[in-house]
Amino acid sequence: MSEDNIRGVPRGAAEAPLSILELATVGEGSTPSEALRDATELARRAEEWGYHRIWVAEHHGMPGVASSSPAVLIAHLAAATSSIRIGSGGVMLPNHAPLVIAEQFGTLHALHPGRIDLGLGRAPGTDMATANALRRSAEVDPDEFPQQVAELTGFLDGSFPPGHPYAKIQAVPRGDDRPPIWLLGSSGFSARLAGLLGLPFAFAHHFSAGNTEPALDLYRSSFRPSEVLDRPYALIGVAAVAADTDEEALRQVMPGALSWLRLRHGRPGRTPTPEEAQAYPYTPMEREFVRERLSTVVHGDPQTVRDGLEELRKRTGADELMITTQVHGGAARLRSYELIARAYGMI
């Protein structure tokens, strides 16, 4: 599998490709159906505006996130577009039998050849009770992740050695090639594994900013060339919000910060409105939490956001930036992505 299969653009470009991480965010006063319609419209616009790929994330038990079934949403977004890459960012592999994922993404790849990415994470993306319900098992062991990745690869490639218990099992459909596998992470575990396997790596800078550079250093130092890549390829997820003015961007970014605060308190809900976020009675400790959260979100007018994204890209050496934008309402989200695309001269 060549680098072009993974990235779609040649190395050595002056700027890293921009991509999108989509959670189908459900805002206060909205519905999951509206959130999914907004996600579909974003995919169409992102393709028009020149974004490289759009991934959907697997989360469970969160009223404000409608992307609990990545394969289903990927199929819908791919059918609504024609050229942008669509993938998972990611499938939380411990929640699923590898054969099921091989069949789902083999089907997606057969429907949309050359456009599907399979990003894999080792966290459950939910609480342990929900994870157990997904797996129908009393235990979910993230340390089994390397074995699960190996099984999934075996099913996708038909590469189990003779004598392996699954050697005679075929994941159908399976063509001459398969979707590229990415490993996702927010710490060093998946970074090292991605390097050792010679796979592309996506790091969740948007919620683990302090670990970004150590994890990328570990990925690059662990990297072994493979049939997939001859040198490391690192993507980082970045929270960013652009608006016409710095003041409006701050107003738009506050609901996402309040959502994170409520999640930290064990009260996940729909994304609040800017007015609700402004009126919330923050304690001093909560204000500090919000301040720290906002320090990891690139926000402001279009030039400010571009400058912030470029500083981060150069500091980390990331090959690609994947932007996630948690604001209230599809219109504000679309406007943010449009302004960023314009700031980069993509439209």
UniProtKB/TrEMBL annotation:
One of its GO terms (cellular component) is cytosol. GO terms for molecular function: oxidoreductase activity, acting on paired donors, with incorporation or reduction of molecular oxygen. Gene3D superfamilies: Luciferase-like domain. It comes from the Bacteria. Residues 24-319 form the Luciferase-like domain. InterPro entries: Bact_Lucif_Oxidored (IPR050766), CmoO-like (IPR019949), Luciferase-like_dom (IPR011251), Luciferase-like_sf (IPR036661). NCBIfam families: oxido_grp_1. To bacterial alkanal monooxygenase alpha and beta chains. This is Luciferase-like domain-containing protein.
